[in-house]
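Entry 0007
Protein: Serine aminopeptidase S33 domain-containing protein
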Amino acid sequence: MLTLNSTPGNPVPPGGVLVSLRADDGVELRAAHWRPTTRNVRGTVCLLQGRAEFIEKYYETIGDLRRRGLAVVAFDWRGQGESGRQVTDPHKGHVARFDDYRRDLMAVRDSILRPLLPEPHFCLAHSMGGAIALTGAFEGWLPFRRIVTVAPMLSIRMVRFSTAAGLLARAMHRLGLGRRYIFFGNGTSMATKPFAGNRLSTDPNRYARNADAARQVGAGAVGDPSIAWAASAFRAMARLNDRRVAPAIAIPTLIVAAGADPVCGTAETERFAAALRTGDLILLPGARHEILSERDAVREDFWAAFDAFIPGSEPFDRERIGAAAEARV
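Output (structure tokens):
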């Protein structure tokens, strides 16, 4: 039975509706949606998680969005959280191919977004979710009016020789080893590792909160990915870094990059953003990979950029917001 888990420092936002739905290939997905806490309804934001994330990790963000007059839908991608698995080890972050994530998002669109939640629809995408959103925008199937993506997965800094790693992962996948963990991989969630030296946040309190939430969801906070996931991820990133992709994206896009991101490459993110014809970039100095779980000053800068971009009724002053972020350093 699906649940929304709660810890003392991370209670479930009140008023949510928990939903079980199925993608068109039968994989069960966990989703939930909330109405705004304001009288004025400004639209809906769909949260697109990063790899190994889960709904519980976004409770604070859900509250922030609802106070802005926005309905929210959150869901777990297949292979993580409490959504269905395609391997027997529930701790293994596995997906057969990145195209399957499109199936998940289309299921959420058809079952929740379109029939239940107010227009206009926007997305707030983190890391892997950003790569999925940008791919969908390029291919023309993304069901959102505007995109905000935080530290999108356009490259992976955790791998020293990424080109060679990608070739090796694809070769092993073709040999039928796609369901195995990546080399030296295991089922331990990155979110439960010690704060000292972590790659995700400089805020010890939010880091501890997320670690408690990860322990509460258990296998939902998956560990390392499978070889199939890695092969698909490298293929997706290579495609996004084709110089023809960014200029072809027609959906207005705000990219918020972390200046001290040890997970995804900030330089690649800046190059991609510079090529967008309908996009803007905000760089938050000193922030690590999980901007939404960062210290208050970083989050304030993020929300200032978000509020200027969503729902799009005001001119977006990138220079003013960027200068304010620089001044906080």
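Curator remark: The beta strands are 17-22, 28-34, 43-48, 70-75, 121-126, 146-150, 253-258, 279-284. The CA atoms of residues 47 and 124 lie 5 Å apart.
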